[in-house]
Please model this.
Amino acid sequence: MHCSRGLCIAASILAINFFGGCTKSSAKTVSEEKKPSEKITEEKKINPDIAKARAVYDKMSDRFKGDIQFADDEQIEDFLADLNEILKEEKTFSKDDVSLFYLIDKKHNIGSDYVPAELIPVKQNNLFNVSRNDLSLRSEAYDALCNLSKAALADGIKLMVSSTYRSYTYQTGLFNRYVAQDGVELAERYSARPGTSQHQLGVAVDFGSITDDWGDTKMGQWVYNNAARYGWSLSFPKGYEDVTGYMWECWHFRYVGVKACRFQEKWFRNIQQYMLEYIEEWKQQ
Model:
């Protein structure tokens, strides 16, 4: 189950790499040869970012390449147009904090001293219920949670917010408790080491009971079908533990924004990790 069901990229495109494709060469007659001026004009029309897009793609995992393929340069240009819109939106994010697209996972962490610049308390109110009184979220995520909750209420559902921002210290204690309970190997499949949790960014919410059966509840189904419309993306989908590093968590959603959710659906099989990895690698090139 995913946060929404938008468009998927066809994985059945055969014998064509994501940014690859075949080229054909053939002998040309003198009359077919292009004049130097014509060649220069043609070169100017080539999008230079296509080569960069191919280079970024080459850095992606084999699973990524198996899941995501493009047919030709025209489709890549369509992708690049959407990517540029996402990067343009990123420039509007708060300059006082890390990007909403900040990649944090088992290979990319954040410092022990990081705390979101502006945390808003998440208290019991008319829009949603809370499981504890010590919850908080980064301001952008809080506003998006309120919008999501208003829409849910309009459909007769009051959301339950069970976990939000966690400090480095809090995550340390939580992870150590799970290790003592289940051992390191199992604990690492469902709990993040301190400094690698999306919760430390203040943009992630665990909804409901935080159990696998929540996804089958009326609340869970509503969130899956509507979360993306308000910028919330399922972080750890079923069948992608080798990609995300974590077991399926039907209750864990991260705020990335409405445009990013659409971008994720259209080009990345609705897999948040794929999108964030690609954006990060693009910025590193």
